[in-house]
Write a structure and sequence with these properties.
The complex is a heterodimer of chains A (211) and B (607).
Chain A lengths: L1 H18 L8 E5 L1 H5 L8 H18 L10 E7 L3 E6 L11 H10 L1 H7 L7 E4 L15 H37 L6 H9 L14
Antiparallel strand pairs in A: 1-3, 1-4, 2-3
Helix pairs in contact in A: 3-4
Chain B lengths: L2 H11 L9 H12 L2 H5 L1 H7 L6 H26 L5 H6 L4 H30 L22 H5 L2 H10 L14 H18 L3 H11 L2 H14 L4 H9 L9 H14 L6 H7 L7 H50 L11 H11 L1 H7 L14 H13 L4 H33 L9 H15 L8 H12 L2 H31 L5 H28 L3 E4 L11 E4 L4 H29 L15
Classes of the chains: A alpha+beta (211), B mainly alpha (607).
Chain lengths: 211, 607
């Protein structure tokens, strides 16, 4: 009896190995770069980590695929390298010799990518599924572009400044004219000009050089 | 005009003519005019491409032999004759009015496009108030599957500059329409300029306290920041490593001479004008020497600071290139991480090449080279430096500081450019006397703003470099050469010496005599001939950003269309020819209408 069970197990694992091979049409290659992601905090890749991977993938298939009860055994891994890269295929829970279609696997991986990444403390760059590009986040677009706000502030300030300066020079001119008219007669232009010497802000109201 | 007449004229004018509030304002305005964007983005490039530390030798020699004498000349003539850039030449001899008109035209040409550069700087400044900076990453394409293709093929900084800022067209003939965001920044730039020059030097004198000093503060902050970054000292070493063989090449000396000349903002008329607002006994000799030294030192200082940051960027790029190659090798040969490091990279590469030559050839690894510095001009500021900033922590702060510094540098130069336009316009009586100063400056700014809209089209960048290459180079050299000859030989060097003795108390020594009479005119002449010959002999090509071309992302070279020659003639030929043509026209006019006021010399030479 025991030898039958052993034979069956051996056959099934051999069968499974045949399903998974590098370049399998329904399989994907995975590559991890743990050292570059975590540096000193890097963990060692071993059998237990591989088990976690298979379990995570089974979870993804359960949740985001057709709802069938995928198990760790349904995720078959092969061709591990020291780089930490390997190929995997997913078999159907109903029939161990049938592979789940590539696209369903891709869809499940895509939807649960962030869960898979965080299970291994990695990111989209350091845990790569070759052939499944990561879905890029839509950029946050603010309603008003920030540059318009900065522009508005500066233009507002400058506009206010120009208005203030123009109004102040107009006011000064009116005041000067009124002072000039109040004087009874004979204030010559020269004297009016020399009054202006002592108040520097008037000095530029006259046009400047003559040829 | 005798010396007594000058002294009494100064008293009479005290009510009419603007005056500096104090000497500091005058010095800061002149320093601000001289120290501009060229000190930051042209000098470091020239320095590094002409033999590093060795370039200092021709630069300093020509600074002393060419820059200082010309500067002293302009200051002295302005202070003595108490007129702006057009009035002094009319006073020396009415037929020389052409020089004044030429320098006014050049100031006008340069003001038009220079303020567009300030508009670009403002655009980058406004965009610096966000994290992450918009030029640090590529935008997404329409269906969010990846990045925009143009950006992916080039780089985020290139894309932001050529597409989101300029929205540049592939050729100068396609104008691409006005870019509304640039029009807004353009109006902002002209408004900021207007508010500073609204009442002439009364307002500019206040503005320069900030615009002339802030760049030095920012440069020092960047120096401190830069020195703490990895690779900065490599950059400085690269900049100053002397290559004495470069000194034998004439092009090094000519580039040094041209850089000294353009850096001093001579022949614009602005410096003459600023100097004329001084009291007549101001020590212009001392001022000339001090400002020249400040200008030279600023160039070297700015180059050092820029290259600490550039060195950091180059090291960063090199490290990234190396990491990229290492990753490719690890992935292809399935080696564990940590097998290949920076230190054993070369040995591993050699070993792999020997063991698996076919696989290796297919990989096509890029060779990582540290020497990718050679960029100048707008490329340095808007592409290279902005990229370096994105790699620094707290990037928005550095971006804001950098662009405020560029803005101040540009604005303080614009004050001098505008002075070179406004004062001649007043001298030519273009505006009615009754108009207040605010209206005169306002109308000038509005007209320049409208004409400057050419540079805001899709092809605006090409127009700008056209104006820069032809409108801002040859006419200035012609005017400067004519200035020297007029003062030394028409006004008379002996008269000039006496004037200076009257103004500052002692006759100019042998150094000034030698440089004014012989050395400086000769240098100007050689540079003029060299420029003329190179510009005429080279093919009229310009560099374009064309996503369709094969060389993308490198700039493609295209030929100018034929009608551009007309534009070039208007830009370079008309100001240069103004000198002899106006002279002939006036000679003809004055023989017919002998009594006209234009022909007589108000305070003539012969009194």
């Amino acid at each position: 009896m025991l030898w039958k069970v052993l034979l069956l197990l051996g056959l099934s694992s051999a069968w499974a190995q045949k399903l998974c091979s590098p370049g399998a049409s329904d399989g994907y290659k995975v590559r991890l770069s743990i050292n570059s992601a975590l540096g000193d905090q890097a963990y060692v890749w071993n059998e237990n980590e591989m088990f976690l991977f298979r379990a995570t993938l089974a979870f993804a298939m359960r949740t985001y695929s057709d709802g069938q009860e995928y198990d760790v055994a349904n995720v078959v891994v092969c061709d591990e390298t020291p780089r930490v890269s390997f190929w995997f295929v997913v078999t159907s829970p109903l029939d161990a010799s049938l592979l789940v279609d590539k696209r369903r696997v891709e869809e499940a991986v895509r939807k649960s990518r962030s869960r898979i990444n965080s299970a291994f403390l990695l990111t989209d760059d350091t845990l790569e599924f070759i052939g499944i590009p990561p879905t890029l986040e839509a950029p946050v677009a603010p309603d008003t572009p920030p540059w318009l706000i900065a522009f508005g502030v500066v233009m507002g300030g400058v506009g206010a400044g120009i208005v203030v300066l123009l109004v102040s020079s107009v006011v000064q001119k009116i005041r000067k004219k009124r002072d000039g008219e109040e004087e009874t007669g004979g204030k010559t232009e020269n004297e009016a000009a020399s009054d202006a010497i002592y108040n520097m802000s008037f000095s530029d109201d006259e046009p400047v050089t003559q040829m | 005009m005798t010396h007594d007449q000058t002294a009494s004229l100064e008293e009479e004018e005290a009510g009419d003519r603007p005056k500096w509030d104090n000497k500091t304002q005058y010095m800061l305005t002149c320093v601000g005019f001289c120290v501009g964007l060229g000190n930051v983005w042209r000098f470091p490039y020239l320095c590094q491409s002409h033999g590093g530390g060795a370039f200092m030798i021709p630069f300093l020699i020509l600074l002393v032999l060419e820059g200082i004498p010309l500067l002293h000349l302009e200051f002295a003539i302005g202070q003595r004759l108490r007129r702006g850039g057009l009035g002094v030449w009319a006073q020396i001899h009415p037929y020389l009015t052409g020089i004044g008109i030429a320098s006014m035209c050049v100031s006008l040409t340069i003001s038009l496009y220079y303020n567009t550069i300030i508009a670009w700087i403002l655009w980058y400044l406004f965009n610096s108030f966000q994290e992450p900076l918009p030029w640090s990453q590529c935008p997404m394409n329409a269906n969010l599957t990846g990045f925009v293709s143009e950006c992916e093929r080039s780089s985020p900084v290139d894309y932001f500059w050529y597409r989101e800022t300029l929205n540049t067209t592939p050729t100068i003939e396609e104008d691409g329409g006005l870019q509304w965001w640039m029009v807004l920044c353009h109006i902002c730039a002209w408004s900021l300029l207007y508010i500073c020059i609204i009442r002439g030097i009364e307002t500019t004198g206040k503005a320069v306290y900030v615009t002339s000093t802030l760049p030095y503060v920012v440069l020092t902050i960047f120096l401190i920041r830069g020195l703490t970054l990895k690779g900065s000292l490599d950059g400085v070493k690269f900049l100053f490593t002397p290559d004495l063989t470069e000194l034998a090449k004439p092009s090094t000396w000519l580039d040094a001479g041209a850089q000294v000349f353009y850096s001093f903002s001579l022949a614009f008329g602005g410096l003459i004008s600023f100097s004329s607002y001084n009291s007549v006994h101001n020590n212009c000799e001392q001022d000339a020497v001090i400002i020249s030294i400040i200008n030279g030192v600023t160039s070297v200082y700015a180059a050092t600071v820029i290259y600490t940051i550039i060195g950091f960027r180059a090291t960063e790029r090199f490290d990234n290139c190396l990491s990229g190659n290492i990753l490719t090798l690890l992935n292809v040969f399935e080696l564990p991480e940590g097998d290949i490091t920076d230190s054993n990279y070369n040995q591993v590469v050699q070993r792999l090449n020997e063991t698996y030559p076919e696989v290796f050839q297919q990989l096509d690894l890029t060779t990582c080279n540290l020497n990718t510095f050679l960029i100048e001009g707008t490329g340095l500021a808007f592409i290279v430096f902005t990229e370096a900033i994105t790699k620094m922590p707290v990037s928005p702060v550095w971006a804001v500081l950098f662009f405020i510094m560029l803005f101040c540098l540009g604005l303080s130069s614009m004050f001098g450019n505008i002075e070179g336009i406004l004062v001649p316009l007043q001298d030519l009586k273009v505006f009615p006397k009754t108009w207040p100063k605010e209206a005169v400056t306002g109308v000038t700014c509005i007209v320049c703003c409208l004409v400057g809209l050419i540079f805001l089209q899709g092809s605006g960048n090409y127009w700008l470099s056209l104006f820069d290459t032809y409108g801002g180079s040859i006419p200035l050299l012609v005017v400067a050469f004519c200035e020297m000859v007029s003062v030394v030989y028409i006004y008379g060097i002996d008269r000039f010496n006496d004037d200076i003795k009257f103004m500052i108390g002692h006759k100019p020594n042998f150094f000034w005599q030698a440089t004014w009479r012989v050395i400086s005119p000769l240098i100007m002449f050689f540079i003029l001939i060299f420029y003329f010959v190179t510009k005429l002999s080279e093919q009229l090509l310009y560099k374009v950003w064309d996503p369709e071309s094969d060389k993308f992302p490198t700039l493609d070279e295209k030929q100018y269309p034929v009608w551009i020659n007309v534009i070039i003639f208007i830009l370079a030929g008309i100001p240069s020819l103004a000198v002899p043509l106006v002279s002939l026209a006036l000679a003809f006019y004055c023989t017919v209408y002998v009594d006209s006021s234009v022909c007589s010399q108000e305070h003539g030479m012969y009194h």
